[in-house]
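Example (one chain per record):
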Amino acid sequence: MIDAPAGDALFALYPILARLPEAARDRLRSRARIIGVPAGTTLFDERQACQGFPFVLSGSIRVIKAAPNGRELPLYRVTPGETCIISSACLLGQAPYNARGVTEAETRLLLLPVEDFQALLAETAFRDFVFQLFSERIADLMQLIEEVAFRKLDQRLAALLLGKGTRIHTTHQHLADELGSVREIVSRLLKGLAEQGLVALSREQVEILDPAGLRRLAGG
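Predicted structure:
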């Protein structure tokens, strides 16, 4: 059972839930549970059964697809007010997870048990919410497929850097993880950008020197 402050936070972040009938809202309050996890925690992994439907109250979850060789492709992030399409798909299809979810920061979420998720699908407002989520995430994933399939890695790296500000505090490994590549390749590309005068590199920092040049590279 969740307390009143947690319930208020839930309905503020997910206003669609306020449209549920009172009995459905009461069921959600009484059956859901709050979970707090530190950064870097694996919330779910491939071939695991889904334990419930998550609502993120604070923090964020990074959802990735991992290859046997250790490479990872980031699929999307789940932040407060959003939820996880892969969890929805697993619950609807009664199938195990086919991706991994890892907390990026200390995260607090509300977990709705499987049987209560199934029951709430009978409510039009909740069902519309779930399928709207599918629509939005599928559009995001189609864009990701287009990026990976049709844009070269140096273009994607340039676009990624431009979206992070002028002075970026990060590691080559973290950039590689975001791009679904490996550190050695990203380090080589960054060195090439530095040799062209587009960026300056220092320990765990990338400074953008020529944003116009990076934009030309990102645009192909």
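Caption: The first strand starts at residue 33 and ends at 37.
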